[in-house]
Write a structure and sequence with these properties.
The protein is of the alpha/beta class. The protein folds into two domains: about 30-115, Leucine Dehydrogenase, chain A, domain 1 (Rossmann fold); about 140-270, Rossmann fold (3-Layer(aba) Sandwich), CATH 3.40.50. The protein has ten helices and eleven strands. A hairpin with a 5-residue loop joins strand 9 (about 235-240) and strand 10 (about 245). The longest helix has 21 residues, at about 5-25. The radius of gyration is 19 Å and the shape is globular. The structure holds guanine. Guanine (GUN) binds near residues 95 and 140. Guanine binds near residues 139 and 140. Belongs to the tetrahydrofolate dehydrogenase/cyclohydrolase family. Pfam families: THF_DHG_CYH, THF_DHG_CYH_C. Its EC number is 1.5.1.5, 3.5.4.9.
Length: about 290
């Protein structure tokens, strides 16, 4: 069993980004700048946002966090985004999800300028990504690709099973791994909550690579995978004890794996690193 160490990979990517930023700053340019919008006080979002802001500073970026109350209206949020779209001193903006019920998240995402959509959630970026064109790629999916690349895990020609069809993870990773990208050319099966259990087991048991993003602790058990599988655990679940665990029953399943991501220290770290790659690209586009 080998660990796909997201911390090690992310640290190496961030060190490379910081070096590039230092060169730009030495040449007299301003630093890259990320704006983060956080609505309300959803505890996991607080922790993700904190990690994004800290990583901005490790990357040599400026950042600012705009906090809005849980009761903010969609109209107010859209007005703020319109302002940020016009602000030349910020390169990328993220609106941390989930948003409160009175706000339609897709309308908010659609309002972000595609040039500043470092999450890669805007239909323009998502569409371009799906078509294999240059785009900001959704950070978690992109981070998984970078992690597989860092550890030279073969992807092309292999059978990859994705569990979970969310717009931010399952859907984009299944498209990216099946596309003719640098990390791609896999044969991908996308399964989800409506996939019959027997069919799910048939697929996971013959998969070379399983990517699970369902948000259920211990969802993947040893009987579900074959010996030598590569297992990518996207879940970040907080148990009542406060312990953070993924979607894989790690201790029981890890001995069967050729490669496995830990939680924490796996995909979560890579999501933030990929966001930094996208922010640097947004910044560089501004100075091209
Ligand atoms: N909430 C959970 N994951 C993400 C993400 O990657 N981006 C944003 N904006 N919100 C999230």
């Amino acid at each position: 069993m080998n660990l796909l160490d997201g911390k090690k990979c992310a640290d190496s990517l961030i060190a490379g980004i910081a070096k590039q930023v230092a060169r730009h700053v030495d040449a007299g340019l301003r630093k890259p700048h990320m704006t983060v919008i956080l609505v309300g006080n959803h505890a996991p979002s607080e922790s993700y946002v904190k990690s994004k802001i800290t990583t901005c500073s490790l990357s040599g970026f400026d950042s600012n966090l705009i906090r809005l109350p849980e009761t903010v209206s969609e109209k107010e949020l859209l007005a703020l985004i319109a302002e940020i779209n016009e602000d030349n001193s910020t390169d990328g903006v993220i609106v941390q999800l989930p948003l409160p019920k009175q706000i339609n998240a897709q309308r908010v995402i659609n309002a972000i300028s595609p040039e500043k959509d470092i999450d890669g959630f805007h239909p323009t970026n998502f569409g371009r990504m799906a078509l294999g064109q240059k785009a900001f790629r959704p950070a978690t999916a992109y981070g998984i690709c970078k992690l597989l690349q860092f550890y030279q895990v073969p992807v092309a020609g292999r059978h990859c099973v994705v569990i979970g069809r969310s717009n931010i993870v399952g859907k984009p990773i299944s498209i990216m791994l099946s596309n003719d990208f640098d990390i791609g050319n896999a044969t991908v099966t996308l399964t989800h909550i409506e996939t019959p259990r027997e069919l799910l087991l048939e697929e996971t048991r013959r998969a070379d690579i399983v990517i699970v993003a369902v948000g259920i602790p211990g969802f993947i058990t040893p009987d579900m995978v074959r010996d030598g599988v590569t297992l990518i655990d996207v879940g970040i679940n907080r148990l009542e004890s406060g312990k953070i665990v993924g979607d894989v029953a790690f201790d029981a399943v890890a001995p069967k794996c050729e490669w496995i991501t830990p939680v924490p220290g796996g995909v979560g770290r890579m999501t933030v690193a990929a966001l930094m790659i996208n922010t640097l690209a947004a910044y560089q586009n501004n100075f091209e």
